[in-house]
Fold this protein.
Amino acid sequence: MANFKTHLSVGITVSSLTALAGYDRGLGDADQMQWLFLIGTIASLLPDIDVKQSKPMRGALMLFGAGIGYLAVRTLPFQFTTLEFGVLWLLIWLVANQILQVLFIRFVVHRGIWHSLLMAVVLAVSSAITADTFFAQSTQMSWLVAGFILLGYLTHLTLDELASVDVRGNRVKRSFGTALKPISLRNWPASLFLIGWLYFLLGFAPHPAPVLAGLNTLGIPTTWVAQHWPRWSFNYWQTWGRVLGLSR
Ligand SMILES: [Zn+2]
């Protein structure tokens, strides 16, 4: 596998060039493009979340624990002073982080489900929903966030595959084909679950018009996709966002 430094520097290069091109085409202002650059760079490190005790794994679990801690304290039906809020948040954060670490080390397999195109798409659609629901971004910006997640993630998987080919191109290491794969067949129950989860998520995604337009410019026919794109009428995420006081 390519190492952390390689992933970081290639991720920065690809994301910044794409953000610059997007800025050039007027897809967003300088501020938005900086955010997209950052998101793309983080996504290019994300697949190695499945490497035990790697930087991406520890970073992601820290962030996730912080999110859980924050939401947990916010949902408690008490009025806290800033200090109490901070202490409680920190406590729940630390406990959640420990539990997550144990679960991750126990269950996650390197180069399994996290190194697949399916996971890349699931995370991209999730990020579009997050940008739309929790950060009140426009439909186009939400899908741009998804695009940069996909870009960073695919950059990582491609680099991993390249690293498994011998420099002279004669010999192929055993890890070839374990990074850039559509789905993880070894872990088919998880893959099957992810496919169902993706269909469920698509129904909550922002309006697909920008995605369809993008596919169209690439010459990919979109009539079928437009007809079969699921839309659920009950907006689960927005309801939860309101309950937690995060969205409008
Ligand atoms: Zn990797």
Remarks:
- The chain has one domain: 4-52+108-243.
- The pocket of zinc ion is lined by residues 1, 47-48, 115, 156, 160, 179 (CB under 6 Å).
- Residues 4-52+108-243 form one domain.
- The mean pLDDT is 85.
